[in-house]
Structures are given as C-alpha cells and as structure tokens.
Write a structure and sequence with these properties.
- The protein is an alpha+beta fold.
- The chain is 23% helix and 31% strand.
C-alpha cells in the first residue's frame, strides 16, 4: 500500500470507531474531511494572474524587444532604466546608478538587477503609447512610458 492509501484507511477506521462509540455521524464525517491534500512542490506554485488596466492588450516578445531595445523606460517612483541592445540594463533611482540585464523569455519581459538573487519576469501589455508590466513582481501591472534612445546617457 502507498502512504495515501494507508492514511485514508486509518481515517476511515477512526471514523468508524467514532461513530460506534458516540453515535454521531457528524463526528465521523469530520474525520473524513481531514484527508491529506496534495500541494504543488516548492517553486512550482502557480503564478498569480497579472492585473492589467482595461483596454490594454498583450504584445508579443518581438514587440517587447522592438519597444524597449535601445530605449529608456520611465518607471513609477522616479526610476529610469535604459535597455541596451546587448541586453544590459542601466538604471537611475534617487540619484544612484544601478545595472543589470534584461531579456524576453517565453514572451515575458525579464530583468535581473545587479546584486539580486532572482529575476523578475512579467507579460507586457499596451494601451495607446503606454506599456504596462510588473516592475517589481507585484500582481498589478504598472504604467511605463518609453522614451526613444538614451537621453540621460545611462551606462
């Protein structure tokens, strides 16, 4: 027998004993509700669904590259990031420079910042001239304005 079968048999036995001694079917039913539940393995949990504004439409990986490569993003909170064609990322926040890498992976825009352990990936959608993606892994997409080139000379 496998472990799940043994646990189910044990739960059924306990329920029968509870019914025999107490005569309460509700107690017996409550024992059956305590059956083991299977959860995804760590790191395999389903991703939260991204929330995009009404009217925004998904763009493809090639459209993400065309929109970002060689251009600068004006992010919420005053962050500015330049996405170089070679995949490097150069940013500025509160007067401090930072760097990292960017890529499109499986149709999502992904960034990995310097000194970070994990990258952040997000689908990208567009409404008018504004792009939307999860800047820092939050389930709600943020509005991002794209400026042609590298006007702040980030490198």
């Amino acid at each position: 027998m496998i472990r799940a079968d043994i646990q189910a048999l044990r739960a059924a036995s306990l329920a029968a004993v509870a019914l025999l001694f107490t005569g309460q079917a509700a107690l017996a039913a409550s024992v059956f509700l305590a059956a083991p539940v299977s959860y995804p393995a760590p790191g395999k949990e389903p991703a939260a669904k991204m929330e995009f504004p009404s009217g925004a439409t998904p763009i493809s990986g090639s459209e993400i590259i065309a929109a970002l490569s060689g251009h600068t993003a004006m992010l919420p909170g005053g962050f500015v990031e330049y996405y170089a064609p070679d995949g490097s990322l150069h940013g500025l926040a509160e007067g401090k420079h930072y760097s990292g890498h960017w890529e499109v992976r499986n149709g999502d825009f992904c960034t990995l910042l310097q000194d970070s352990d994990a990258d952040v990936c997000s689908p990208v959608e567009r409404r008018g001239d504004t792009l939307y993606w999860s800047v820092d892994g939050e389930p709600e997409a943020s509005p991002v304005t794209i400026v042609a080139g590298n006007p702040q000379g980030l490198n």
